[in-house]
Amino acid sequence: MTLGTCLENVRATTPLVHNITNYVTVNDVANIILACGGSPIMSDEPRDVEDITSICGGLNINIGTLNERSIQAMYLAGAKANELGHKVLLDPVGAGASRLRTETALGLMEKMHFDVIRGNVSEIKTLAGSAAATRGVDASAADAVTDENLDAMVRLVKELSARTGAVIAITGAIDLVSDAQRCYVIRNGRAQMGAITGTGCQLSGMMTAFLVANPDRPLEATAAAVCAMGLAGEIGLEALQPGEGNATYRNRIIDAIYRMDGVALDRGAKYAVR
Amino acid sequence: MTLGTCLENVRATTPLVHNITNYVTVNDVANIILACGGSPIMSDEPRDVEDITSICGGLNINIGTLNERSIQAMYLAGAKANELGHKVLLDPVGAGASRLRTETALGLMEKMHFDVIRGNVSEIKTLAGSAAATRGVDASAADAVTDENLDAMVRLVKELSARTGAVIAITGAIDLVSDAQRCYVIRNGRAQMGAITGTGCQLSGMMTAFLVANPDRPLEATAAAVCAMGLAGEIGLEALQPGEGNATYRNRIIDAIYRMDGVALDRGAKYAVR
Amino acid sequence: MTLGTCLENVRATTPLVHNITNYVTVNDVANIILACGGSPIMSDEPRDVEDITSICGGLNINIGTLNERSIQAMYLAGAKANELGHKVLLDPVGAGASRLRTETALGLMEKMHFDVIRGNVSEIKTLAGSAAATRGVDASAADAVTDENLDAMVRLVKELSARTGAVIAITGAIDLVSDAQRCYVIRNGRAQMGAITGTGCQLSGMMTAFLVANPDRPLEATAAAVCAMGLAGEIGLEALQPGEGNATYRNRIIDAIYRMDGVALDRGAKYAVR
Q1: What is the dihedral of CA B33, B88, A49, A114, to 10 degrees?
Q2: Which of B162, B159, B100 is nearest to B125 (CA)?
Q3: Domains, chain A, ranges and CATH?
Q4: Could you tell me the strand order of the sheet in which C183-186 lies?
Q5: What's the pTM value of the predicted model, to 2 decimals?
């Protein structure tokens, strides 16, 4: 199955995605899920989440702007989603930046099965128990995946995947998407995407839709979502007019996902498998 | 009074609207209320809402991303708004999709008077006690208002209006806006609006401003807001450039409301009254 | 040091800003902080905020959509930020519009030191104990700073600054930025900015980044942020195409900040010092 087919499967099946996510980027998360062909629902009240997650196919747990109530909702929704065999994704926003965020991410990983864990390199290193140098919700430059440390980083994600049973996705200048055996090394995207809040959150939401629509191919579905996001970043930047900046760029990226089809994704995806 | 006059009355009076609404679409709700000439305030803390609603002319209650605290705030604010004779609107987002949402919508309807209840067809059928096939926060295709079931649906909204004392607005491909006697059947809008999160929420916010500015004409005010939103969807789609998608379309719809005047609304509104 | 240098210092140092802010405008706040060269983090959970604020350089407290939990977080984060000598800004959204908002703003001012307090004229008059005529979250026209009452208003902000030890910023058609000795009277901006939700919130977030990057020059840093926002409003309006309205204008303002450099800011800033 090609990566483009993964996208086409989203459009063909309109997967419902339950999101427990931060209030900073939630609107863009909803719009990018719609743009790729999915249907988003947001709910973070403990009394509401089990019903909501039950009618969906996937659950996207993002711990940015977590609070006592939403943490409780994450545990309840995750347990229910696991019970129903739904796809579940963890976006550990800010793991390493505060005790509560690190503990919540690790606690969730202990109590439930995740199909995918997606974060920046500092967040993923924190979860892997390796020394990370988090800078707030952004990855530290010291942690970046580079051609120099690529071998070591591929080993790290394969080991973390083997240990957790989840596909691991690290996104940054070079993206890694790995299960225990194979690692996609992806080189789509533009540095300017870092000047938009929430491209990572958006990717996690869209990725959950890809997982639901491609239930037997989690590695390919995850890689497809990463390539689609990076390619949209390239198309959106190309479309930027003089005087336009990060706010318009944000819209153009979502627009590019809306316009993208499987053929364009297959043609634009830049990756090697190791 | 024409529908265009209803819009002009909003611009002439700058009605203040208190919104207890979800955090997914709240920014767009605020911007569209400003676009049509109103002034939005958001507050969902029980200790804050009675003061805030007192200084406003209308209250927009939207149960998307409801939680224990905001539900309590809805009851307090609604009681105060009723006491003061303010306009109150209910947007039952996801009624039918979870027990908490259905119970909250019905509970609010029992405890307070709503001037308007606006939702998609599955949500409204849930409130009417008729069998609905909700698909998350979107209407089920099986429930859609069509030319084939139009007579039955007009009967349903008239009966629900008679029973609740509220103007009932169902929005979708065909929109119905009805009191117990008359029903506007509205055919503005574009199918692509469904690919934007929150066009319904935006409409409810804007509609509350229309109600406040046209206190004696709730049916016309509601119909005017529905036509304005649909017409903005038509204008916004027409303005879309190659490569643009749902994110930019969202902005163009709000922009179209900002630019719309009463003459344009009267010229563009497409409806019949039954 | 010129105002343009204040902006360049933001870009050179990428200050981390912790925001406890409302969910209406939070996405725009994050994107404008990124646009000016800073890095935003949002957290409002009491168990999280001390860790988060500790890794940042500044704290932006905005009381729009405050609730019991976030109020507690404001007190905890403010105390920690003061202890660490971080910059702290207060945006008293809606002070004067409800008891809870007024009491929270005054309570915070009593318990912690603010480097800057930024609001509209009605909010600042409320904090100064002078009769204000708040109209929701917007300033009352009766309160507006004009050429006629300019002397009295400059006296008011200087006195409030002397009393609180904070730089006071009133924004509106004429902006005032003052410490106890000197007051910048700024005439950048466009009236149409009032049709966008959250330009004030955005300014407060960006201003906090300016404060962190210019630690010894709070007055100049604050004035620079105000001029930058107003200038961006001028550039963004100029760039508006036929048919575009407040939603696109919002993006164009953030875009203009993204594109602005120190030379452009110095050339475009319109102010006198009194």
Answers
A1: 0
A2: B159
A3: 3-273 (3.40.1190.20)
A4: C39-42, C16-20, C58-62, C87-91, C116-119, C167-170, C175-178, C183-186, C271-273
A5: 0.97
Q: How far is the C-alpha of A246 from the C-alpha of C36, rounded, in Å? A: 10
Angle ∠(B100,A42,A127) on CA atoms, nearest 5: 120
What single-letter amino acid sits at C33?
Answer: I
Q: Are the beta carbons of B211 and B204 closer than 8 angstroms?
A: no
What are the chain B neighbours of C24 within 8 Å (beta carbons)?
Answer: 26-27, 30, 42
Residues with Cβ < 8 Å from B42, sequence gap 6 or more?
B18, B19, B20, B21, B26, B30, C22, C23, C24, C64, C65
Q: pLDDT in tens for each of the 274 residues of chain B?
A: 899 999 999 999 999 999 999 999 999 999 999 999 999 999 999 999 999 999 999 999 999 999 999 999 999 999 999 999 999 999 999 999 999 999 999 999 999 999 999 999 999 999 999 866 666 778 888 889 999 999 999 999 999 999 999 999 999 999 999 999 999 999 999 999 999 999 999 999 999 999 999 999 999 999 999 999 999 999 999 999 999 999 999 999 999 999 999 999 999 999 999 9
Q: Report the half-sphere exposure of A166 (CA within 13 A, side-chain side).
A: 25
Q: What is the 3-state secondary structure (H, E, C) of B95-144?
A: ECCEHHHHHHHHHHHHHCCCCEEEECHHHHHHHHCCCCCCECCECCHHHC
Say if residues C81 and C41 touch (Cβ distance below 8 Å). no
Q: Are C134 and C122 in contact (CB under 8 A)?
A: yes
With beta carbons under 8 A apart, name residues in chain C contacting B235.
243
Coil/strand/helix, residue C61: strand
- Strand partners for A271: A186
- Please indicate whether, in this complex, the C-beta atoms of B27 and C28 are within 8 angstroms of each other: yes
Cβ distance C97 to B252 less than 8 Å, yes or no, reads: no
ipTM over cut 0.90: yes
Residue at token pair 């930024």? C118
The model's confidence at residue A108, banded by pLDDT at 50, 70 and 90, is very high
Which residues does A contribute to its contact with C (CB < 8 Å)? 22-25, 27-28, 64-68, 94, 97-101, 134-138, 195-198, 243-248, 250-251
